[in-house]
Structures are given as C-alpha cells and as structure tokens.
Design brief:
Blueprint: E1 2-6, H1 12-18, E2 28-31, H2 35-44, E3 55-56, H3 58-68, E4 75-76, H4 79-93, H5 107-122, H6 127-134, H7 140-162, E5 165-166, H8 168-182, E6 193-196, H9 204-215, E7 219-225, H10 231-243, E8 249-251, E9 264-272, H11 273-291, E10 298-302, H12 309-318, E11 323-330, H13 335-348, H14 353-360, H15 363-369, H16 372-388, H17 398-411, H18 413-431, H19 438-451, H20 454-464, H21 467-482, H22 496-508, E12 511-515, E13 525-529, E14 540-543, H23 563-573, H24 581-596, E15 602-610, H25 623-633, H26 646-654, H27 664-672, H28 675-692, E16 713-714, H29 716-724, H30 726-734, H31 750-771, H32 778-793, H33 804-832, E17 836-847, E18 852-863, E19 866-873, H34 889-899, E20 903-911, H35 928-942, H36 953-956
Parallel strand pairs: 1-7, 1-8, 2-3, 2-6, 4-5, 6-7, 9-15, 10-13, 10-14, 11-13, 14-15, 16-18, 19-20
Antiparallel strand pairs: 11-12, 17-18, 18-19
Helix pairs in contact: 3-8, 4-5, 4-7, 6-7, 8-9, 11-12, 13-14, 13-22, 15-20, 16-17, 16-18, 17-18, 20-21, 26-27, 29-30, 29-35, 31-32
Length: 992
C-alpha cells in the first residue's frame, strides 16, 4: 500500500485527474469518510455516468456486505439500542460494582460506559485483556473503576452474543472477516483498485477492513493530506497503521511543488451567534442574486450543527436562502418529539395548566380534533374558565379539567364535540404510564399515538411541510427500535417524568434531515458539521462559530475516567484506545488547516463574543492564526460594496473602524433619504468622540451640545420611550432613524395589526354603544361587527404587501378569530361592570411645570362623574404595570381628564391579540408620581441628555448599567447601542 501525501490545497478533483481515477469506473472502489464527501463527488462527476455501489463509507460498506453475505443472520442495532443493552448490562451487574453501584442507572454514567465499551471494541481490546492490563496499574482508584467497567463490558458482550446482534464495532469486524475469508470478488465482481480519501484517523477494526480490501486488489491509492509540523499526530497516525500490521510505503513526490494558494480569506467578529448567521445568510443571498452563483457553491461548516439547526434554518429561510441541514435536526425538535414530550409532561405534572395548554396547541393534536377553528375557540374557553371563574379554577389534577369540559359541552353545542374529544384524550393519558418499566411505558406511548391517530394526521401535515416526511419515517422507525426493549432489555422506570428524561435523551441524539422549503428546481446551501466536511470542495466555505467549545472542540470528558486516568490505561494496554489532549488538539489543527484550504474561491471565518445566555465566550485558539492569514491575503475592513442594507450602513457609520472619509452618507441617502444625513451629523460626531474616550463621563456622552431641541410638547408614549431607554429615544426622535424592516418577512407586522385593530374598535364601539348602551344584545353586536368587518376586509390596502395566499391567511386569522374573540370578551366584561364606554380616540392635554403633555386615549369609560381609561395593545400586557419608569400612559391620561372636571378612578391595558392576559384587576387612579417623572424626562430631553439606561431608573441615576452586559433585544437600534460592549461609566447629572 502506498501512502500518497499531497498538499492541503489539492482536492479530489486534482488527485483523481492526476491518477486517472473516475467514480463512474466500476473497477474502482472509493472509501470516503462521510455522506457530504460522497455527495460532493457525485455532484462533480454527475455528467460522466451513474454509480452508487462503488462510492462507500464504512457504514455503507458494512451494511452492503452484511446484507449480501450468506453467513450473516445477525441484526445490526442502532445507538439507541446499544444504550438499552448497556443499561440492562449495568443493571444486571450493579450489585457487584464497587465504585459505580449507586450510579449504575445514571444516564451520564451509561452514556460514558457505552462510549468506553465502543472504543475498547474498536481497538480490539477484549474484556480479559482490559481487566488484566488495568489490574497492573498502581493507582487503586483506576483499578477499581476499570474492574467495574470490565463487569459491564463482559455482560454487554454476553447479551449481544446471546441474541445475535451486531453493534457498530462488530459490523465492521464482520466486514473484515468476510473479505479475509472470501475475498472481494463475491461482493464487487469487477473491483481492481481501491481509493482511500479524506480520512483523519481510523480505528483498528477499520484498518483491518482497509488491509483486507488492499490485499484483494492490484492497486490501492491512499491519499493523505500533508501533516505539516504536526509531529505527534503524524506519528500516532502511522503508529496505528503499524499496530494493524499494514505494510505501507510513503510517497512524497506530490509535496515537492506546493501550489501557491489562491483562495481569498475574510475574518469577522460578531456580537452573538444570531448576528453571525444573519450576516452569512445575507452574504450568500447577495452572491447568488448579484453574481449568479448557485446554492451548491456554498458550504457552511458548524459544530455541533444539531444544537443550532432550528435557529440557522429559520434565519436562512427568512432571508430567502434554502438550506439542507443533513442529519442536523433532531427528533426532539420534530412535531412527534414535541407531542411525546407534551404528553409525558402533562402526565408527570398531574395535568398542570401550562402543560395542558401546550398539549392542546400541538399541531398533531389539533389535526386529531379535525376542526382548527372550533378547536381554538374551545382552547380559549378552557383558558378563560380556568383562570377567570373561581368555580372552575384549577392548577392541576384531571378532575378539574373534566368539570370545565363538561361545562363547555353543556353550554355550547358547537364546541361539545371538540370538548368531548379533549376529555377522551385526557382520560387516555390519565389511564397510562402506571406500570413502572421502560417497555410498558413505551407501549403506552405507542398506544396513545395510535388512539390520537397520529399517522392519519401526518398525511395532512406532510402535504404542507415536506420536512415532516423525514421526521415521520425516522420517528416511527425509532419507536419500532424501542419495542426492541420489550422482550430483550427491559428495565424499571420509577415514574413518567423519569421516562420522559430517558426518552428525550434518546430522541435528542437521533438526527434527521432538515430542509427548508424551496422550488423543485432550486438548490440548497449545505450546512455541514466540521468533522464530516473532509474532502468537500465548494467555491465558498463559511467556518462559523469559532469558539473554544466548538472548534477546536474541548476534549470530551466523562464521569468514569479522567483524562490522566485514560492516559494510564493507554499505557497499560499499549494501545491508543483513548485520545489524549495533545493529540486531540493536533488533529483539530490539521482539520482546520485542511478546511482552510478547501474552498476554491473564498474562505470566510467568523466568531461571536456572547452565547445565547449572554455570557462571554472564549474564542478559538486558532483565531490568532486566522488573523495572520487575513492580514496576508485580505483586508480586515469590508469595502462599501459589501454593505448591502441600511442596517449595515448605520452600523458601519457608528463603528470606530468606519471610514469617515468614505461614501457612507451617500449610502444612507439611498437607504433612508437625504433628510436623514442632516439629522445624523451632530449625533455621529458625538458618537465618534465617545468611542475615543475612557474614564469619566464627558459632554460628548449623553449631552449633545450641537443639538438644540426646542420642543415643549410631549406625548405619553414619547416619554415612555425615553423612560425605557434615552438612547432609543435619541435614535428614534432626534436622529430620526427608521427601524430596518426585513423585506422578506412574509407576515403582518404588530404595528400593522395594531393600527387596523384600533381603527375597527373605534368604529365598532362608537356604533354599538351609541345604539345599545343599555341592552347590548348579542345579535346586534354580531351585526355591527360583520358590517365593519366587511368594510375593512374589502380594502385593497389591508395586507397588500403580502403574497396573496399569506394575506388571506392573515386576514382570516385577524377578522375571524383575533378581533371577534377580543370584542366578545370585552362585551362580557362591560356587562359585568358599571362603567360604560363613552369616548373613543379622545384627545387630551394638560400642562406641567416643564412641558405640555398631549395624547390620545383609546377609550374612556364613564360612571357618572367617575372616569376610567382603557389602552389597547395588540401584544401581551402581562408585563405592563399601571405605573413605573416606562409605563406612563394610564396615569397621565387620568391626570389630563382631571383637568376636564372628571374624577379619575382607574386605568388598565387590554391585549387584543392575547385576551387571556386581560384577567387582572384594573389599577387605582394615583398619578402624581407619574407627572413628576414626566417632568423629569421632559427636562432631560430639552437638555439633550441621552444616557444609555437599561433597566431600573432608580439604580441608573448613579451608574450606567446594562442588564446582562448587552443591548436589549427589543430595540430597533441595538446594533448602534452605546452599551454594546457593556460599558459602565459614572454620570454626574440627572435632575429630578
């Protein structure tokens, strides 16, 4: 066998061409490291013929030979089943364990033990060899641990052999034995050459396969990427070949002339992973649209992809780029995994309200109920009764929910069938999971899925979402695998909650292909794990998330053996069973250098500073090397042509690295219009100056001397904006920056829905209460609403910016559900009280010491001389207080009405979109403190004082404090926020 070393810059295209190799040649077998490489080769050679059997991974090779061989009657088992066997083995020997007796059923211990057993088998270490070798280690603790693992290992092997199963290691071993005994002709009749390409390491079992393959053919091409100065990695790699008794000859002829790299390099840092993926998706879209590249020209490498698959896919899809996250989504994220979780949470929490609501809204359960409209009406009725009426209020327990459902069946004929089905489903769940074994609980789960007609519902969902097909097939294949436990490896589970943890662990590790929708003729961008990317050769590669927990990855740890203990075991066995830290790092470094040379046109590196929990993350150790590459081959600062949105332009303009002499103002004019440049001038100069300063607060921070604000009239909402964050007010009201909307977002905005709802509610309330303020008949309420609905529904401007199908869906949801449900609830609420609506969109005004407060009240309710104010919100009002530093509307409106001679009574916010939030009591009429704070805000605004407060104003009067050291997620101007880097500075002025 000849090891052919080649420069990292040479990919399979160059190598195969040089040695006259072609995948369409049936006499040549190609052994490749993973599916992405197979796809890459197939795509490149698609015009040269049809193949399939000769492009092989180790898994495909073992599956093929195990299927064709007449000697094999064993069943290959999955990782889920392997873990079940390990659990059974540990349970059977638990009484004999010294160190891990109490942890024999702990899932962390079992995962680690299954991994250790797999590594021992792949390294061809028998139970006897492992126990005898580790018994010679001086440290008693290691010997005792190894003895425990040896007992589990021995029992595991016994269970596997008794039942004629094949795990991953055994299946590879069988391939080696079959090739050794019968040669290759039986399986591949015309095979004369073997090509091995793209691998970074092998197990001894895999090397035995390679040895036997090579002995059966006339030529073996073993391509190895140059190791460079990674001496330990090279020695370990070649040492493993010698350990497998493989005779090889090293060929360095291709290393004599290393071609000069032509790949362009770019490196960027981002605030968080969301911004990183946002930029990548936009960049790819720009290249596809503007320069005519295909989606298949791009590969995005990330590790571990499955933990970010949902967010990555949603961002790419939002920006109009279809992606293929092959084997990156998990069953836990699928609708089937969510339904299983909803059922088990409901059972284990004794039917807690929040778990019931989640279960009711599962898409598969809604399909089971058959009528989505009636179902949602019934759900709202259940929420309303359970939260508002003391007779039916319940926290948990199925009896309370039965009373509520029976009440609905008695009172509403239309909803009776839905309520009856829900009651039946709850009874079904309540009657299951009583037997305390894994097999029995799995049987119960399958029974519930059957009774809820999940298979039938899936047919409907698959028609709407193609990704559901892959999830459906994979989930039910997984459920069938779990049935493997029934007669084989059953074990006790104390309760449904524990069963859910076990099940969730299984389905969280079970990957499934995830593809965003696209036209049949369209291509998708591949999202690939770092380790499966060896051998690919696209035009553009994006290596994202270069933090120390992703790349290079941290050497995996487990609760059984520490890294030093593994090193001792390696020495005792005289084999590399476990990777050591230095080797692990060198292998990662080699992978990094290979991937860096892979793209033919451009490599993009990126990292982010903060994780999803807002904690700082440590960047990869490779970043210094990356920055050196960037300095040599590309510019750190992007050209103006790469700024392709208003948001990018603004961020560039405010950043300390922006080119002040550049053409950014012209870009801003194109994106926002010419007026914005004048408003920006003094604000930008202040921000530029601020970025150069450190230490104490100065006139350039928060006080913009060159901006003279003459305004003396303020609205309550305007003052609320300042109270929430003065910098947000500065950006919105002084600089007059528009929020950057997403042109590809295909849904109605909250602002659009809110404006429409306010207009219709004003017209409805004026009409209905002028006619029937005393009786409020239901029939007339419906008639009035239908007249107004017809008028607004026919307006061409309503949702006109959306595609027709989406606009119709948004209209139906708003006109048939959102608004009528709110009006119905509000009429009932008014009937129960003594206040009646009298004024709508009423303009009010009053003067304070420092300003005129002027606003418009959505609704004013009257009882004699007493007055109450209502303010509508389209979203949630749970966090809305009657008064605090950022909630001023209600008390200021009441203060204004007092000036008109009314007696202020109370105020409340009402949610149009979430009526369930409207059950809290109205708040009292105190407003003096709100008027005082409004005065304070007005004075500060007129003094051009805009410090970046985030959070409680009482605390921030002394310090600038940023919660979680990052900009708030709700703000349209967070990319410009001056607390972006968590700056904390003392301030000296805030007049009260």
């Amino acid at each position: 066998m000849k090891l052919i070393y080649h420069p990292k810059e040479l990919d399979f295209k160059h190598l195969f061409r040089k040695y006259e190799l072609s995948p369409s040649d049936e006499t040549t077998l190609f052994l490749l490291p993973g599916v992405p490489v197979v796809q890459e080769i197939e795509d490149y050679y698609c015009a040269e013929g049809i193949w399939g059997n000769n492009l092989l991974t180790f898994n495909e090779l073992s599956d093929f030979i195990n299927e064709v061989s007449l000697n094999q009657k064993k069943k290959k088992i999955s990782k889920t089943q392997i873990l079940s066997i390990t659990r059974k083995a540990a349970e059977d020997v638990s009484e004999n364990l010294e160190v891990f007796r109490e942890f024999s059923q702990n899932r962390d211990f079992l995962n680690a033990t299954a991994s250790i057993i797999s590594k021992l088998k792949q390294s061809k270490v028998s139970v006897k060899e492992f126990v005898e070798s580790t018994s010679k280690i001086k440290k008693q603790n290691i010997r005792e641990k190894a003895l425990d693992i040896g007992l589990v290992y021995e029992k595991y092997e016994m269970l596997v052999q008794e039942r004629q199963f094949l795990d991953d290691s055994d299946s590879i071993r069988i391939v080696s034995e079959e090739l050794d005994g019968q040669g290759i002709a039986r399986f591949f009749l015309e095979a004369k050459k073997v090509v091995i390409f793209g691998f970074s390491d092998f197990t001894l079992c895999e090397l035995n396969v390679i040895k036997n393959l090579s002995s059966c053919v006339s030529e073996t091409f073993f391509f190895l990427s140059d190791f460079g100065n990674l001496v330990e990695y090279r020695n370990c790699f070649l040492g493993r070949l010698s350990e497998a008794s493989i005779v090889y000859e090293e060929d360095f002829t291709m290393m004599q002339k290393i071609p000069a790299p032509e790949t362009h390099i770019e490196f960027r840092k981002f605030r968080d992973s969301h911004d990183e993926v946002e930029y990548v998706s936009r960049t790819i879209k720009k290249l596809i649209i503007d320069e005519g590249y295909k989606a298949s020209d791009f590969k995005v490498l990330v590790r571990p992809a499955q933990k970010r698959s949902v967010s990555i896919a949603s961002i790419f899809e939002k920006n109009g780029v279809a992606v293929d996250l092959r084997n990156s989504g998990t069953l836990a994220e699928s609708i089937y995994g969510r339904l299983a979780g909803d059922i088990l949470r409901l059972k284990s929490s004794n039917f807690h309200r929040k778990d019931l609501i989640r279960f009711l809204h599962n898409p598969l359960f809604i399909c089971y109920l058959e009528d989505p409209e009636l179902s949602h009406r019934c759900f709202n009725k259940i929420k309303e009764i359970s939260s508002a009426d003391p007779q039916y209020r319940t926290v948990s327990g199925i009896s309370g929910w039965k009373r509520i459902l029976n009440h609905i069946m008695e009172q509403d004929v239309q909803l009776s069938l839905v309520a009856k089905k829900i009651a039946g489903a709850l009874n079904l769940i309540s009657s299951k999971f009583g037997r305390k074994s894994f097999a029995a609980m799995t049987y119960d789960l399958r029974k519930i899925f059957s009774e809820l007609k999940v298979s039938e519902s899936s047919v409907l969902l698959i028609g709407k979402n193609k990704a559901t097909r892959e999830c459906f097939d994979e989930f039910f294949s997984f459920i069938r695998e779990l049935s493997f436990s029934y007669d084989e490896f059953d074990f006790r589970v104390p309760d449904p909650g524990k069963y859910f943890l076990l099940l969730n662990e299984f389905i969280s590790n079970r990957t499934v292909s995830y593809k965003t929708p696209c036209d049949a003729s369209s291509e998708r961008v591949g999202i690939i794990d770092f380790y499966t990317a060896r051998g690919i050769n696209p035009k553009f590669i994006f290596l994202i998330g270069l933090v120390n927990t992703s790349f290079p990855s941290v050497l995996p740890t487990d609760p059984v053996f520490r890294p030093r203990e593994k090193a001792k075991i390696n020495q005792a066995l005289k084999k590399r069973v476990f990777d050591e830290e230095s080797l692990h790092y060198e292998r990662e470094k080699h992978l990094f250098s290979v991937l860096s040379a892979t793209a033919s046109e451009k490599v993009f590196y990126s990292c982010f500073d903060r994780d999803q929990r807002s904690n700082e993350v440590k960047h990869s150790d490779f970043l210094e090397q990356i920055e050196n590459l960037v300095e040599s081959h590309s510019s750190k600062v992007c050209s103006e042509e790469e700024i392709f949105s208003g948001e990018d332009a603004l961020a560039r303009y405010f950043s300390s690295s922006g080119d002040e002499k550049g053409n950014i103002p012209e870009i801003l004019k194109l994106k926002y219009g010419s007026d914005i440049v004048g408003h920006l001038s003094s604000g930008v100069s202040a921000e530029k100056k601020r970025l150069e300063l450190t230490g104490a607060y100065t006139a350039f921070e928060g006080v913009l001397d060159r901006i003279l604000l003459r305004a003396n009239t303020f609205s309550p909402t305007e003052l609320e904006t300042y109270g929430t964050c003065p910098f947000m007010y500065f950006s919105q009201r002084v600089l007059k920056l528009k929020s950057v909307s997403d042109p590809d977002e295909q849904r109605a905005s909250q602002l659009e829905l809110g404006s429409l709802a306010h207009d219709m509610l004003k017209e409805f309330m004026e009409t209905f209460f002028s006619e029937s303020s005393s009786s409020m008949e239901t029939n007339r309420f419906v008639e009035v609403y239908e007249e107004i609905r017809k008028k607004y529904e026919e307006k061409s401007s309503v949702f006109s910016h959306l595609p027709k199908a989406i606009a119709e869906t948004e209209k139906k949801r708003f006109f048939e559900h959102t608004l009528p449900n709110f009006i119905s609830d509000e009429i009932k609420r008014i009937r129960r009280g003594e206040y009646l609506p009298r004024f709508f969109e009423k303009e009010v005004e009053f003067c304070t010491d420092d300003a005129v407060i002027r606003g418009k009240v959505d609704r004013v309710d009257i009882q004699g001389s007493n007055v109450a104010v209502i303010d509508y919100k389209i979203g949630s009002v749970k966090d809305r207080k009657y008064f605090d530093f950022k909630n001023l509307q209600l008390p200021l409106y009441l203060a204004a009405l007092r000036e008109e001679g009314f007696i202020p009574s109370w105020g409340r916010y009402l949610s149009i979109g979430k009526p369930a939030d409207n059950n809290s009591s109205p708040k009292d009429c105190s407003f003096e403190e709100a008027v005082s704070l409004a005065n304070c805000y007005a004075r500060s605004i007129k003094e051009s004082f805009f410090p970046p407060y985030v959070g409680d104003k009482e605390q921030n009067r002394k310090h600038i404090i940023s919660k979680k050291d990052r900009p708030c997620s709700y703000c349209d101007y967070r990319d410009l926020c001056r607390v972006k880097d968590g700056v904390t500075r003392k301030i000296s002025r805030f007049k009260v």
